[in-house]
Amino acid sequence: MEFKINAMYFSATGTTRKAVCCLADKISEKLQNRAMIKYVDFTLPQVRKESISFSYDEIVIIGIPVYAGRVPNILLKYLKSIEGNGALSIPMVVYGNRNYDDALIELKDILESKGFNTVASGAFIGEHAFSDILAKNRPDSQDLEIINGFADKIAFKLANKSHAEKHDVPGQRPYRPYYMPRDKTGQPVDIRKVTPKTSSNCTSCKLCAKVCPMGSISFDEVSNFKGICIKCCACIKKCPNQAKYFDDPDYLHHKEELEINFIFRREPEVFL
Ligand SMILES: Cc1cc2nc3c(=O)[nH]c(=O)nc-3n(C[C@H](O)[C@H](O)[C@H](O)COP(=O)(O)O)c2cc1C
């Protein structure tokens, strides 16, 4: 069968996009007739309003970042609106070197409940959204080599028509609660209401408002928030003038703790 390939991702700071697009490209390279790739970037809110469905002759690579050990809850409605209709899926999660906990099993369960057949799954590491040093510049060349090997295994599975063979992924059901950061005394803290500040470096170029996946930054006055902040850090990492920052003490403590406790390099894991 000649498959069409789809690369779908939510990627506020670009690491999930890099992993998904690399895998799509490598699978396409290894299939006969170098299949065309269709890209669906559902990072921005307007894209998540469009319904999308697939058919049995399509491969859909779907990547999301891990937020609090789970699939980001703001994506659940959209993911559950996708119709698989027997298409093959490859769920990918990208996490910031702490852990992906139940995110991969949750994503795989959602896709299978929507009529996808999962051919393979993977957990990859991306530079942590909160940090400039944790998993810095990942996925890096070593990760991309592993993605290349993963594509080899997927192409082999497809060529041998064994893509219906099931596989398990790590994680627990029922899924564990969302991972909570802790304050200096070890008490869980809720940082959901924290929003980034804007410094005098801001030139009001509006890039932050354009890249916010929640459409929450006001175009008229970019230091104003008109919706929720998911702490994705798109506005912080993409600002050309480093004008956006967090100063909440609990957020900053959590970031420092992550940088200390999870500095040891974790490696990608693939399942098929
Ligand atoms: C709100 C939030 C929660 C996160 N939770 C986790 C986590 O539980 N474990 C982890 O290792 N990384 C966590 N991360 C880091 C992201 O998974 C990581 O930076 C990912 O590469 C971001 O993907 P993107 O570049 O495609 O946006 C979190 C990031 C954010 C913004």
From TrEMBL:
Keyword Kinase appears in the UniProt entry: no
Keywords per UniProt: Iron, Iron-sulfur, Metal-binding
Domain 4Fe-4S ferredoxin-type span(s) in chain numbering: 192-222, 229-249
Domain Flavodoxin-like: 5-155
InterPro entries: 4Fe4S_Fe-S-bd, 4Fe4S_Fe_S_CS, EFR1-like, Flavodoxin/NO_synth, Flavoprotein-like_sf
PANTHER family tied to this protein: FERREDOXIN SUBUNIT OF PYRUVATE:FLAVODOXIN OXIDOREDUCTASE-RELATED, IRON-SULFUR-BINDING PROTEIN
Full protein name: EFR1 family ferrodoxin
